[in-house]
Task: inverse folding
């Protein structure tokens, strides 16, 4: 409790002034405040075993921020993975058994149009959040744009604004129970898990998603299971050669799958 400069200051003070005359005089020592003296005196009057005072170490999960106890993550029955870009927000709702419950995206046409206005972000994002299903955790992709390229600063500002807005709107219950339910997962962590990285750049996961859709029909134990209606709807949408700019949907699905697989193998 009293280390470094605090302990040195106590020694220097006593050398110059002699023993402390009363408890209040302890606060004359530089860096020693009321809170510090209260903690120290209580520990002297009520000594406890060191093992009792030591806080239990949280078993952390490396790829998730903020730090969440592993047990809470493992007990989650479902998660919603969200990925957002310059004009879209996509999400995938997966249950613990790797079954896809919902998978879609919404376009936000006013993103990055004209001058930045916080009210526009609220007006565009709130209706999207209202459509997102309930889950134990919401996992947001952490953008990986380098700040060294100043030309990308408006994009980074936009992505961080959307991220902050989603944290606020999805995490409304935090004020009630103090439990974090909105988490961040690095884009590069997902890329490395699925071997989509080329150097420091993440490549498209569309081909992998097409394979996952196909395996859901042809394999007895697929990596991820889709409802039949979803397979029919999206197999043509993601077929090779079709340019429909659904990268956010691909990334949202892969992020949710990576969450469960990394948690299982971490």
Result:
């Amino acid at each position: 409790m009293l280390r470094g400069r605090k302990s040195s200051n106590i020694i220097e003070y006593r050398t110059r002034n002699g023993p402390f005359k009363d408890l209040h005089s302890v606060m004359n020592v530089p860096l020693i405040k009321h809170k510090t003296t209260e903690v120290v005196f209580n520990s002297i009057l009520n000594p406890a075993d060191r093992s009792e005072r030591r806080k239990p170490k949280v078993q952390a999960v490396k790829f998730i921020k903020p730090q969440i106890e592993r047990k809470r993550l493992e007990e989650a029955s479902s998660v919603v993975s969200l990925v957002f870009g310059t004009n879209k927000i996509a999400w995938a709702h997966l249950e613990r058994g790797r079954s896809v419950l919902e998978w879609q995206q919404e376009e936000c046409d006013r993103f990055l149009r004209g001058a930045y206005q916080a009210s526009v972000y609220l007006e565009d994002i709130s209706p999207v959040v209202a459509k997102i299903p309930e889950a134990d955790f919401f996992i947001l992709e952490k953008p990986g744009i380098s700040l060294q390229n100043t030309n990308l600063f408006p994009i980074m500002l936009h992505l961080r604004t959307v991220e902050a807005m989603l944290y606020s709107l999805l995490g409304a219950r935090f004020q009630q129970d103090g439990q974090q339910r909105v988490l961040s997962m690095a884009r590069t962590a997902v890329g490395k898990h699925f071997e989509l990285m080329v150097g420091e750049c993440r490549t498209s996961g569309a081909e992998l998603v097409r394979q996952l859709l196909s395996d859901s029909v042809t394999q007895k134990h697929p990596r991820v299971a889709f409802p039949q209606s979803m397979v029919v709807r999206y197999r043509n949408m993601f077929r090779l050669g079709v340019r429909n700019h659904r990268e956010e949907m691909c990334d949202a699905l892969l992020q949710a799958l990576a969450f469960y697989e990394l948690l299982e193998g971490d």
Summary: Strands lie at 64-65, 78-84, 88-95, 100-107, 137-142, 182-186, 197-198, 201-202.
